[in-house]
């Protein structure tokens, strides 16, 4: 009893003497544990999806859209796997995987379309940042803030990408953080001019270099290629328009021919009641989805 009481008093005394150090060590351990746990949970794949939804989602809806994407992918996999493996067996499981990746193909296509839309904002965007750089006495942080304020709603992609830079750039503590912020900016646009602009911004912020000549050359170069790009865009729109008109016509025509050759009920039974019919239907659906995506990508060239 005496030993226990002595031990208790000794532990209390040690705590009272070293309480500040003990509390500091506990807090430091918890902080490091949370940091490690957060880094472990946020895998490369999750970061990849986060970057995509930051670009394609509307303001403050990135997390919601990401959760919808995960839920939709799981639902598509469960239903397609259950339905197709009963009809197509092993082949059905492979086809179900093809359906499962369709949501990812969709968001990737949407990302590319968003990047290409943003790339067409290049001339107006670079003109504004170049003008503000001169007005702000070549102080780059103020230039970024003023450019965000003065960009119109006709440049939504570049405005949002630069706005994120403006929010994060003031709290950077190292070149590595600055590079990460500018890499996210480049990812949102994925063009040569955005990479060159990011290099200029890095030099101006990190190395305090006057980037007036670089911004001027970049703006002048974008102006020169704009006319050729508009001509190519018109040609692509004309060819894609023909395809969009013809494709539904062919689908209706072949459906009509099938219905005229055999009874509609028999045709439906063959289409959805046989292995060959279901397989063909799945391939048609996948082809239509991919074709629609490719046509939209073809009609939207990139402003490099």
Ordered list of secondary-structure elements with their pairings:
Blueprint lengths: L1 H40 L2 H13 L5 H27 L1 H11 L1 H18 L2 H14 L4 H11 L5 H14 L5 H15 L2 H15 L5 H50 L2 H10 L1 H24 L6
Helix pairs in contact: 2-3, 2-5, 3-4, 5-13, 6-7, 6-11, 7-8, 8-9, 9-10, 10-11, 12-13
Q: Quick recap of the structure?
A:
This protein has helices at residues 2-41, 44-56, 62-88, 90-100, 102-119, 122-135, 140-150, 156-169, 175-189, 192-206, 212-261, 264-273, 275-298. It is mainly alpha-helical.
Describe this structure in words.
This protein has 304 residues and is mostly helical. It has 13 helices and no strands. It has helices spanning 2-41, 44-56, 62-88, 90-100, 102-119, 122-135, 140-150, 156-169, 175-189, 192-206, 212-261, 264-273, 275-298. Helix 5 packs parallel to helix 13 and helix 8 (156-169) packs antiparallel against helix 9. 20% of the residues are buried. Residues 1-6 and 36-41 have low confidence and may be disordered.
